Amino acid sequence: MHPLVFMRRAKVGVIGCGWFGTAHARVYREIGDVDLVAVSDINLESARRVGEMYNARYYGSPEDMLEKEDLDAVSIAVTPQNLAKTAILAAEKGINMLVEKPVATSKQELEALISAVEKSGVIFMPGFIEIFNPAIEELRKCLKSGDIGDPLMISSERMGRNPKRPLGWNIGVSLDLGIHEMYVHTWLMGQPVAVRSMLRRGENGYDEAAVFILSFSNDVIGVISTNWLTPAGVRRIRVSGSKGSAWVDYLNQTLVIERSDHSLMPQIRRKEPLLEELQSFISSVISGRKPDIDERFAKNVLDSLFSGIEREVEMK
Predict the structure, then answer these.
(1) Which part of the chain is the Gfo/Idh/MocA-like oxidoreductase N-terminal domain (predicted)?
(2) Which end of the chain is more exposed for a tag (fewer CB within 10 A), N or C?
(3) Residue 25's domain is classified under what CATH number?
């Protein structure tokens, strides 16, 4: 279905019934103006489990669900190697979509997906969930208000053990964890003009640790550090400016602003980022208005990430 303004409830499906697809299904049930009508997974038992849990029809393939259901929108939360091709199927059916990160695993996949989305005219939103973290929203307001002066440097860390996944993921830590920081840096500072990386690869050939160095047109330097090696999860970001600094703990949803003479911690009401994200997506679907976080934004983020990986600095 092409974007249009309509008064009825939006009919939504979920493709991929792993743990995060299941979370999408749960959250859709909490949103007004939405009917979760169908789910699909290549593991029919997984689809049945989620379908019965949320009173939705279930299918063993996305093709079957997209063919038989009259859907306004879908969430696509399949394995990375299947994201782009599944999204292209939805675009060809004219169905609005939210596609989980990393959206695509190669430049070729990305170009094919963007072409299909723009040809179809559907609403597209990447699953860049941390943009909807209330602490990141407050950090963005802080930067726009000039609370820490002109930004000079932005640095972030996202680390943790490589999660055990039942299905193979053909990506490294850069596309799994690093992409979160790349889209947040881009959201806060604009698209970087140059990106370089240093990568440590594991026995499977995929990167298990990575550092990205970014430069922005306003002379801001960016640093992203990510790995699957740190036992305890770390997710934080700091912006240093001409008058102070501000840093966010993603997990605790806290923001600390530090100046030379004082520091403060604004009170932030905790929210579930996935709920905020899906509400924003559904609002775009119902209104027909293109979201700020769309296929072009996703392309900018992934272009930067792929460019950085290609411009790897070898460790001697």
Answers:
(1) 11-128
(2) C
(3) 3.40.50.720
Could you report the per-residue pLDDT of 168-185, keeping only the tens digit for each?
Answer: 678 999 999 999 999 999
Query: Omega of the bond prior to 273 within 30 degrees of 0, cis?
Result: no
pLDDT at residue 2 greater than cutoff 70: no
Q: Return d(Cα 147, Cα 117) in angstroms, integer.
A: 39
Structure tokens at 275: 């709920």
Task: State which amino acid sits at residue 297.
Answer: F
Long-range contacts of 254-263 (CB under 8 A, 24+ apart): 254/135, 255/135, 255/138, 255/139, 255/142, 257/142, 257/147, 257/148, 259/148
Do both 110 and 178 map to the same domain? no
Do 141 and 158 belong to one domain?
Answer: yes
Distances (CA, A) of 95 to 51, 56, 100, 290: 20, 18, 15, 14
What's at 41, amino acid-wise? Answer: D
Domain count, the chain: 2
144 and 224 housed in the same domain: yes
Beta bridge partners of 264: 257
pLDDT band with cut points at 50, 70 and 90 for residue 3 = very low
Question: What is the reported pTM?
Answer: 0.95
Residues 95 and 199 in one domain: no
Which CATH number does the domain housing residue 254 bear? Answer: 3.30.360.10
State percent of the chain over pLDDT 90: 88
Tell me which amino acid residue 225 is.
S
Residue range 81-87: mean pLDDT, rounded = 98
Polymer length of the chain: 316
197: Cβ contacts below 8 Å, ≥ 6 apart: 174, 210, 211, 212, 213, 308, 309, 311, 312, 313
Domain that holds residue 36: 10-128
The arithmetic mean of pLDDT across residues 214-236, rounded, is: 95
